[in-house]
Amino acid sequence: MRSYSTSVRRATTGQSKVVRTIRILSWPQAGQLVTLLSIWLLQLRGDLPQIQAPLARAQQRFPQDPLVALALGSLHEASAAPNALVEASVGRQGNLEKWRQEERAYRLEQALAAYRQAVALDPTLAEAHLRLGHVLLLAGKIDEADASLASAAAATADKRWRYLAEMLRADTADARGDRAAARQRYQAALDAWPEAQSPVLALSRIDAYEGDWPAAQARLATLAPRAGGRAEDPWWAYGFGQAWRIDASLAALRRLVVR
Q: Which of 89, 81, 103 is nearest to 238 (CA)?
């Protein structure tokens, strides 16, 4: 791996002078990480309009990078959310509801294309399969969604993605009206991530729908404040795209810097 000197820092103490050279072990990798980090930080802030410029540059510089395709899909998926559509329609004239419906359909179509590209570039990328499945579910393509979500679970041993895959596969079963299968998958999600709140809420809803109000209330009681504060649930972070990758990518960037 080639290394490059990128800057020199001089510190003077009395009559002595210390010269330190900072080297970047791989400029291409560092540039890729910096570009992706800028996009992910904007995702974390929810600043969707500001993502477009750095993302366009990333597409030009790294057209074969599955993480760039993943970020593009996440931008379109987030832009199809109801709150994003309402915000984007502020100041527009005419039939706003019609515009939001058309914009949602367009954004979902673009998200599907980007996620399919990410899967094609890296078939082992579980997050791409999972997000593709979620958008297919939003688009009403239930069978395709379930197949993609099954691929996500098969592509990884990471409990984060297995949990989310079970949650979304439960949603596909629910969309078919198969509450028994939905219950089984929500329970599997809870088993995969015991401190998660989303499957508890879903199971409580099914109990209530079936008329078992004591069971529904008992499940909700487990969500009372806990000594450790709010429990982490990967579903709450889903809407922030690849922001969950920031810490690991910063660590990787630091390893490329040699002082």
A: 81
Q: CA-CA distance, 122 to 129, in Å (whole number)?
A: 10
Question: Which region holds residue 116: left if phi is over 0, alpha if psi is between -120 and 50, else beta?
Answer: alpha
Alpha-helix runs per DSSP H in the chain: 27-45, 48-61, 66-79, 82-88, 96-121, 126-138, 142-154, 159-176, 179-192, 198-209, 213-221, 234-237, 246-255
pLDDT over 70 (residue 224) = no
Rounded Cα gap, residues 246 and 242, in angstroms = 8
pLDDT at 79 over 50: yes
Sign for the pseudo-dihedral over CA of 194, 198, 201, 203: negative
Burial of 131 (0-12, 13-18, 19+ CB in 10 A): buried
Sheet-wide strand order for 257-258: 4-13, 16-24, 257-258
- State what percent of residues in the chain have pLDDT above 90: 72
d(CA 244, CA 250): 11
pLDDT tens digits, residue range 99-139?
999 999 999 999 999 999 999 999 999 999 999 999 999 99
What gap in Å lies between CA 151 and CA 120, rounded to an integer? 13
Long-range contacts of 144-150 (CB under 8 A, 24+ apart): 145/172, 146/172
Please provide residue 132's backbone torsions phi and psi, each rounded to the nearest 5 degrees. -60, -45
Distance between CA atoms of 7 and 257, rounded to whole angstroms?
A: 11
**Cα–Cα distance, 211 to 228 (Å, whole number):** 32
pLDDT category of residue 18 using cuts at 50, 70 and 90:
low
